[in-house]
Design goal:
The chain contains no helices and eleven strands. By secondary structure, it is mainly beta. The strands form two sheets. Strands 2, 4, 5, 6, 9, 10 and 11 form a seven-stranded mixed sheet that branches. Strands 1-3-8-7 form a four-stranded antiparallel sheet, with no helix packed on it.
Length: 123
């Protein structure tokens, strides 16, 4: 399972740092991703990081504002979110993928093991 944390209410232009801590599986065997889902919208991949080479991918909507990292020793991935916008409001989930590399942006290529953390950005 994974436990996401760090969400909250923040004003536009503010920052939040999300964490996702894994247990019960070999964390460093998996690429890890952050997804988000706003009410009435499809789940969207925000970022993904490969399991070993740490190459990271971002959605165009968050490039230059969000930074994803992982600490394999702590079984944790992070999402540093800066210059937040009201359109970033969503439930944020972390997910695992199979293989060594991020498999693309489609949610059906990932496994979701946690409950998510809510991010709300006020204007």
């Amino acid at each position: 399972q994974v436990v996401e944390s760090g969400g909250g209410l923040v004003q536009a232009g503010g920052s939040l740092r999300l964490s996702c801590t894994a247990s019960g599986f070999r964390f460093d065997d998996y690429p890890m991703a952050w997804f988000r889902q706003a009410p009435g919208k499809e789940r969207e991949r925000v970022s993904c990081i490969n399991r070993a080479d740490m190459v990271t991918y971002y959605a165009d909507s968050v490039k230059g504002r969000f930074i994803m990292s992982r600490d394999n020793a702590k079984n944790t991935v992070y999402l540093q979110m800066n210059n937040l916008k009201p359109e970033d409001t969503a439930m944020y989930y972390c997910a695992t993928a199979r293989g060594s590399y991020c498999p693309g942006a489609s949610a059906d290529r990932y496994d979701f093991r946690g409950q998510g953390t809510q991010v709300t950005v006020s204007s």
